[in-house]
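Lesson 9: reading folded outputs for more than one chain in a single document. The general rule is that every protein is listed as its sequence immediately followed by its structure tokens, and records are never interleaved. Here is the first one.
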Amino acid sequence: MPLAREESSPLFAGTAAGTLRLIFYLAIAMVLMVLDHRNGWLWRMRYATSIVIEPVYRLASLPSEGLHTASVAFADRRMLTEQNQQLREDLLLANAKLNRMQAVAQQNERLKELLDTQRSLNLHVQMARVIGIDFGAYSHRMMINVGARDGVKTGQPVIDSHGVMGQVIDVLPNSSMVMLVTDPDHAIPVVDARTGLRTVAYGSHAGDQLTLPNIPIAQDVQVGDKLLTSGLGGRFPEGFPVGEIRSVGPSATGMFLEAHAIPSADLDRTDEVLILHDLAEPAGPPPPSPSAGPPSSEAPVPASSAPPVPKVPLPSSFKPATPASTGVPQT
């Protein structure tokens, strides 16, 4: 729709005055361009006016910049949270693997000690794993994972790499019950490695010590003495560590000394044990020897079973002797 004359722009009006104004404006523009090119006046003017206009620009862009910064911060926080969570999970997994490796290393060390014990003592042993342990007030027992099907028998000693742990008291098809040396019902013959004193070490209700209640007062028993199996009784082989004396004092009656010792074996930390198949020889007097005498083939035959003696015929001139002829007085 064509514009009316009164609505047309005065700059581009079709009159002569409008044309002159256009030429004037172009001339001014040309002059300003030349001056700006040679002297840089307009650049200085723009630089000066930008000092005033720049804060306006910054103020106008604050909402968009704030929104962008908030979105970036939220995204970074979320990413950092996810990374932190992932790092925590990796750290927990690494710690679990490290603990597992340490446990395996400790287990290998214990197995190595058990094998070294077997080789050094040259014993016929059987390895077993502990599957249960009971440190109650009245019994100290341990369950192992071998039984009658594995050749285990009641009374066999059980040891670890440090000393005697106890003996088998009950055998099941696939497991066995072991009474520990600290059980109140357990007793083991021991010998003091320093003095050679022989006595008996009993279990106690304390659960972590042995009691030696019947030591003669004149005997030399000191703290730190090592207790070894004496071999008496034929149950435990001689020379295995049993414990170490920690306290010595008079008994309640005052007639004996009473000592307390800690077991040499790791009763509450051992996972693998050895079952001895080589039992000690019973100590005591030898069995009576069979009665000596001649062979049965040369022994005299009883009269009832002797064969009859054959009669020999006598000559006719033979006369039996009379008492007179033999010089025996007659009565």
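And here is the second record, again sequence then tokens.
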Amino acid sequence: MAKPLPTAEALFFEGTQRLTAGDAAGAESCLRQAIALAPTLAEAHANLGLALEARGALAEAADCYRTAIAHNPTLPQTWVNLAGVLLLLRQLDDAEVACAQALRLRRDDPDTWCNLGAVYARMGLELESEEACREAIALDPQHAKARFNLAYLLLRQGQWEEGWAQFEWRDWYAALARQLHCPRWRGEPLAGRSVLVGFEAGHGDMLQFGRYCAELKARGAGHVTLLCHPPLKRLLATLPGVDALVGFDEDVPPTDCWTPLLSLPALCQTRLDTVPATLPYLRAEPALVAAWAPHLPTQALRVGLVWKGNPRFENDAERSLPHLATLQPLAAVPGIAFISLQKGAGEDESTPWLTTALGPQIHDFADTAAIVDQLDLLISVDTAVAHLAGALNKPCWVLLPDYLPDWRWLKERSDSPWYPGAVRLFRQPAGGGWGPVIEEVAAALGAFTRVCGAGF
């Protein structure tokens, strides 16, 4: 007897099970078969959207959610899912509409309020975003994503007391916490205890917040071990307050207590007027400075360039320049030797006015520090090298996007309390676009050359 063909319902349930198990490809196959048998089964279209979203096919996922809604517009979660995808696609007006429709169907859903807060944040509507985040938290006080989104808003606004507290809801260091077998430091007296400072996030975060190791020593820590990314080890050996450095690919030594690095501003009650900003707090190795000196031009002002960040960063399409050629207007400023420090994405880009390209020869951040130490100015997008220059107290101009600029640069300011006197911020106008930013930088660069690097 022939085996009976599976029904649409059976294929739908199998697809849903595969989706729950993380088998997006298997789920997609089952759900497409279910839809072929039952084209109006809204739930199948909705779950197919989830499967497509899992493999990054966002536009197709949005189409599936819309089809599901067309067949059954009373499914609030489908509206929520549609809003999430539209948010990623930067279709913000449509995402707002989808959130509003979801709230009409289920007003007490914290996820929907959280999504609406994210939509408003990307629209630049910070008050509305804050209200939506707080509504999500009121409905679910344990809603970590809403609290994390609220933290970004508050920190960007300079409301650091509550901002740092909400920032504690981040969870990216959870895997590290599970590996450590000592209590977490919560701000109590250290009295000679040994402290392990756990690595977090990217290289720039380590460079910016590594300064807090000195704060731990000032508070009585007897021994401070910093866990860090391996490419930072040589450079961070110059960091005040650090007694030992361990790469996260090495065994962690025994210690009395530990703390995530980015929890230290909260534990040290950091406010806008109490940032530990004694510069420089990092130094280039003299031997490396001497080794790199012959590679640098000698007949003009030395201006370093970094025009792209890590492409895996969530907002990289906004913070990175499309190409080195975007900086072409700078070439019209006389008396400058432009030096590329670009590593990774964009490293192979060139232009006739680029005097020297050092990226392929750079091995780690200690090399980069030795180069930056010998520059008159660094011009960079928002990436780790900008923090390195600031920590070295070298003049650095940072180019910032209008869409979701990082919270650490605050709002509207052209300076930074983290790097006073060293970092100058150039921001895109409302609506974005690098053209006006580069024009402003070119004018500032002309002024910079006229005073021969004495100030900016």
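What the second record shows: The longest strand covers residues 223-228.
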